């Protein structure tokens, strides 16, 4: 086979996978630099999303910018679940299952009053977050199973206009 030329179509066919992979890597790299990652849902848009993601530094940033951790806020469906899209940052922090985040919020003065502590304790109980229930042990009221979660799900349901 020495001296014979390879037809152009065979050479093009052989190099096509390499060209496609290189172009894909290049597009992915440009997207990363531009902040658009295909495997990411992007940064938190508010304090509740930051809390739901368990991102303490973003929670603090939103608090310092005036975010209210007790305000019911819309969160994207991938943060907690497709059923839970309207929560407070405190509720989202319980769903993140990060006790340290709740301790941080408590130190920042975000957990105000025994009613709030009891609500968060019941939510933690409903989702079986034992370490968070333990954190609120002094505030642990007699919770009716799933009442807190059901109320949050109902709050998240789209409004009907019949």
Give the tags.
mainly alpha, 162 residues, elongated, Serine Threonine Protein Phosphatase 5, Tetratricopeptide repeat, two-stranded antiparallel sheet, 2 domains, 8 helices
List the helices and strands and how they pair.
Elements: H1 8-34, H2 47-52, H3 56-64, E1 73-74, E2 86-87, H4 89-96, H5 99-107, H6 113-126, H7 130-135, H8 147-156
Antiparallel strand pairs: 1-2
Instruction: Using the 3D structure, state the CATH architecture of the largest domain.
Output: Alpha Horseshoe
Which strand-content bin applies to the residues?
under 5%
Rough shape?
elongated
- What's the CATH C level of the largest domain? Mainly Alpha
N-to-C series of helices and strands: HHHEEHHHHH
Stretches with pLDDT under 50, minimum 5 residues:
none
Distance between the termini: 79 Å
CATH fold description of the largest domain:
Serine Threonine Protein Phosphatase 5, Tetratricopeptide repeat
């Amino acid at each position: 086979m020495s001296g014979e030329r390879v037809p152009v179509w065979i050479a093009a066919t052989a190099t096509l996978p390499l060209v496609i992979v290189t172009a894909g890597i290049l597009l992915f790299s440009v997207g990363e630099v531009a902040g658009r990652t295909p495997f990411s849902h992007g940064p938190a848009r508010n304090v509740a999303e930051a809390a739901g993601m368990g991102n303490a530094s973003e929670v603090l940033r939103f608090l310092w910018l005036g975010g209210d951790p007790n305000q019911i806020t819309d969160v994207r469906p991938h943060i907690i679940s497709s059923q839970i899209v309207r929560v407070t940052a405190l509720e989202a922090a319980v769903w993140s299952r990060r006790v340290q985040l709740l301790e941080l919020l408590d130190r920042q003065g975000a957990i105000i009053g025994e009613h709030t502590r009891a609500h968060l304790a019941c939510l933690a109980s409903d989702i079986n977050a034992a370490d968070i229930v333990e954190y609120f042990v002094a505030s642990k009221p007699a919770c009716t199973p799933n009442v807190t979660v059901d109320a949050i799900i109902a709050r998240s349901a789209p409004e009907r206009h019949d």
